[in-house]
Design goal:
Length: 150
């Protein structure tokens, strides 16, 4: 019985430790994303075989190179407005290797056009190495006409 209880205690501690580690990774990811200044560090969070789905926009990137091309922070003229970070997180849930983050992309300027704010939900799956292997972005792009032609 002592061994059984000991095993349960070890499993609980390992689970808490794994969630703490994943929380640290996710915090670093979204902090890097919010600052939007270090693209190399941002891309280091993704596994080589990662998949990114922008569900509303209808885009699927099937590896890290395609994800880098999709995000490409060097493309266009981007600036945040009112000294706000790129994004703000309002809620987050972590479960083993999955993270769901809810928040807002704050208003910004891109190529001279003011865009946002856009609410988002980002679902991420991480591998055992702490790299993102699947990400689904659900972003309320507005104005919809500019983003999807409707």
């Amino acid at each position: 019985m002592k061994r059984f209880l000991g095993l349960i205690l070890v499993m609980l501690c390992t689970s808490v430790s794994a969630n703490d580690s994943l929380q640290s990774t996710v915090d670093a990811y979204f902090s890097t994303y919010a600052k939007r200044t270090d693209f190399e560090t941002f891309m280091a969070f993704y596994a080589e075989e990662a998949t990114l789905k922008d569900v509303v926009y209808g885009y699927v990137a099937k590896n890290k190179a395609q994800i880098a091309s999709f995000f490409d922070w060097s493309s266009g003229q981007f600036s945040t407005l009112d000294s706000q970070p790129t994004l703000t997180i309002t809620q987050q849930m972590i479960n083993q290797h999955s993270v769901v983050t809810k928040g807002t992309f704050n208003a910004f300027s891109f190529n001279g056009k003011t865009m946002g704010p856009w609410e988002f939900v980002i679902w991420q799956e991480f591998n055992a190495s702490g790299k993102i292997v699947l990400q689904e972005d659900w972003i309320n792009y507005t104005p919809k006409k500019i983003m999807v032609g409707e």
